[in-house]
């Protein structure tokens, strides 16, 4: 009375070996559609997160490149700023010699024009209110030319490139005993 092996498989298909009957897992088309939608939503969420991470990476990289370019420009420009200072001093000393003064003035103008092409401009100083964001105070003096708190003299020109300060102007400020009128930069 041996049974055919095919028949044994058919008879034992629902048993787990202990004689217990296992329930078959049946997924309806609606459940299958719900599972597919859930998987689709999960994949879409992962894709959107990856896209956002990529955009953040691009922005961070662009910002780092811009900062590195600015630092490189700043280092180069800072190397040239003492030359501007020395040309300004030479210009003051050459006031007695008209031709020498004119020649140095031409060099200063060319140099300032070259800096201007890179967006570098001097910060306002003499006659303007002292601003610790762009000025470095060296001392205070009482003067009849300017009111208190106004820049009375510039020792070293300050420069900025756009919104970024390359070097503060080193200045002397009119002290509390100053008796001058209103400075250019002050409101009436």
UniProtKB/TrEMBL annotation:
Subcellular localization(s) per the UniProt record: Cytoplasm
A cellular component term, taken from the record's GO annotations: cytoplasm
SUPFAM superfamilies: Coiled-coil domain of nucleotide exchange factor GrpE, Head domain of nucleotide exchange factor GrpE
Stretches the record annotates as Disordered: 1-21
Protein's GO biological process: protein folding
InterPro entries hit by this protein: GrpE, GrpE_CC, GrpE_head
Any GO MF annotation of the entry: adenyl-nucleotide exchange factor activity
Biased composition (Basic and acidic residues): 1-12
Pfam families linked: GrpE (PF01025)
UniProt keywords, alphabetically: Chaperone, Cytoplasm, Stress response
PANTHER family found in the cross-reference section: GRPE PROTEIN, GRPE PROTEIN HOMOLOG, MITOCHONDRIAL
Physiological role: Participates actively in the response to hyperosmotic and heat shock by preventing the aggregation of stress-denatured proteins, in association with DnaK and GrpE. It is the nucleotide exchange factor for DnaK and may function as a thermosensor. Unfolded proteins bind initially to DnaJ; upon interaction with the DnaJ-bound protein, DnaK hydrolyzes its bound ATP, resulting in the formation of a stable complex. GrpE releases ADP from DnaK; ATP binding to DnaK triggers the release of the substrate protein, thus completing the reaction cycle.
Quaternary structure note: Homodimer.
Family indicated by similarity: Belongs to the GrpE family.
Record protein name field: Protein GrpE
């Amino acid at each position: 009375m041996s049974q055919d092996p095919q028949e044994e498989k058919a008879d034992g298909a629902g048993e787990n070996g202990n004689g217990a009957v296992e329930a078959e897992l049946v997924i309806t088309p609606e459940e299958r559609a719900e599972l597919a939608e859930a998987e689709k939503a999960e994949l879409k969420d992962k894709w959107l997160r990856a896209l956002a991470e990529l955009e953040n990476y691009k922005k961070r990289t662009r910002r780092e490149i811009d900062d590195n370019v600015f630092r490189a420009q700043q280092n180069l420009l800072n190397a040239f700023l003492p030359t501007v200072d020395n040309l300004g001093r030479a210009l003051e000393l050459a006031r007695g010699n008209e031709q020498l003064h004119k020649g140095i003035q031409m060099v200063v103008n060319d140099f300032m024009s070259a800096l201007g092409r890179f967006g570098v401009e001097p910060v306002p100083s003499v006659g303007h209110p002292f601003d610790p964001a762009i000025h470095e105070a060296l001392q205070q003096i009482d003067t009849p030319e300017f009111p208190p708190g106004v820049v009375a003299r510039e020792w070293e020109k300050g420069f900025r490139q756009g919104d970024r300060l390359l070097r503060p102007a080193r200045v002397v400020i009119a002290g509390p005993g100053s008796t001058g009128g209103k400075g250019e930069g002050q409101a009436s």
